Backbone:
């Protein structure tokens, strides 16, 4: 595999980097740093529309989810070969390892690549190669959660899922992402039924920009075991009771919520309110190249701006392991790493 760049090298242990975390809400395509985009474009002789790196970097300012998604989908077109997906995933896994992550259930948008002519098998094999390397070299476990783009047709979602299931790559789960409002989970019932029958774990983005009703639908119609974001659940006390009673994890992404203006400032983020309500909350980085940082950066920002204590960081780490789809044996190992 060709070597492209490295990310921040600081690996000193701190209260923001307990070793043994599980990262459960991470879009691999959202880890493409501007430097990596330039390196991949050079690898494939793809002209980029930006004047230079600084010009691209200056565009990482967003008004909402839609404005982020526009740049996110444009930038990922530099990914052309299996090796590119390997490179991207390996760079993320090394950086996550430095943040204390030892288990990563990574989101991937195969549909965003198959609709521009790539084979799902090539995409998935590249990601799987990096995950296998991380297991061998970094003692990291994990898996691939393929996400359906909810603002595209259901028939396309079904064929993408079929194509992915027909490859030789093991798939851990099915997720649902992209533009939320106007695209309720109910549209994707059949897709999630097929995934359930195929033995995939099920998760969905809900309650990021969309209403609590979308979280109810994700639970009751799609059969999800975990809700991604879910911050708007707090608007519905009956929903909070349900999430608490069933111990449904919420994969919260504080810096993402600020950068996409789901909350106006980090000081106003409901993370601590969610913990106080008894919800099984985890902290994750979502699209770290776009939103100001990786898992450790999210934890550090929560400590500074929300007053999250080292003990609470420890609790969030334990929650992440509990909320993961790791095997019972791996969960025990991760819990003992954290102890
Ligand atoms: N929300 C929805 N879809 C996404 C996101 C997100 O934060 N990141 C990548 N796809
Ligand atoms: Zn997300």
Residues:
């Amino acid at each position: 595999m060709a070597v492209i760049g490295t990310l921040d090298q600081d690996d000193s242990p701190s209260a923001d980097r307990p070793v043994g975390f599980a990262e459960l809400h991470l879009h691999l395509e959202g880890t493409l740093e501007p430097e990596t985009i330039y390196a991949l474009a050079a690898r494939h002789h793809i002209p980029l529309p930006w004047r230079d790196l600084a010009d691209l970097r200056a565009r990482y300012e967003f008004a909402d989810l839609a404005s982020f998604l526009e740049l996110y989908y444009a930038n990922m077109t530099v990914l052309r070969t299996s090796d590119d997906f390997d490179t991207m995933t390996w760079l993320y896994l090394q950086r996550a390892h430095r943040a204390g992550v030892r288990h990563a259930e990574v989101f991937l948008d195969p549909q965003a690549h198959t609709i521009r002519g790539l084979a799902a098998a090539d995409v998935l094999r590249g990601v799987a190669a990096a995950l296998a390397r991380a297991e061998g070299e970094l003692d990291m476990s994990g898996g691939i959660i393929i996400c359906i783009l909810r603002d595209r047709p259901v028939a396309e979602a079904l064929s993408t899922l079929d194509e992915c299931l027909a490859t030789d790559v093991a798939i851990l789960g099915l997720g649902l992402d992209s533009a939320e409002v106007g695209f309720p989970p109910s549209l994707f019932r059949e897709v999630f039924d097929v995934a359930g029958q195929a033995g995939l774990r099920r998760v969905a983005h809900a309650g990021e920009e969309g209403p609590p009703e979308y979280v109810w639908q994700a639970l009751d119609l799609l059969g999800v075991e975990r809700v991604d974001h879910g911050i708007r659940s707090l608007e519905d006390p009956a929903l909070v009771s349900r999430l608490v009673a069933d111990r449904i994890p919420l994969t919260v992404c504080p810096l993402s919520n600020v950068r996409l203006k789901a909350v106006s400032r980090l000081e106003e983020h409901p993370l601590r309110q969610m913990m106080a309500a008894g919800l099984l909350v985890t902290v994750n980085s979502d699209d770290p190249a776009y939103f100001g940082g990786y898992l450790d950066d999210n934890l550090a920002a929560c400590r500074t701006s929300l007053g999250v204590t080292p003990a609470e960081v420890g609790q969030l780490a334990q929650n992440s392991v509990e909320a993961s789809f790791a095997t019972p044996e791996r969960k025990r190992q991760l819990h003992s790493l954290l102890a």
In short: The CA atoms of residues 12 and 98 lie 8 Å apart. The mean pLDDT is 96.
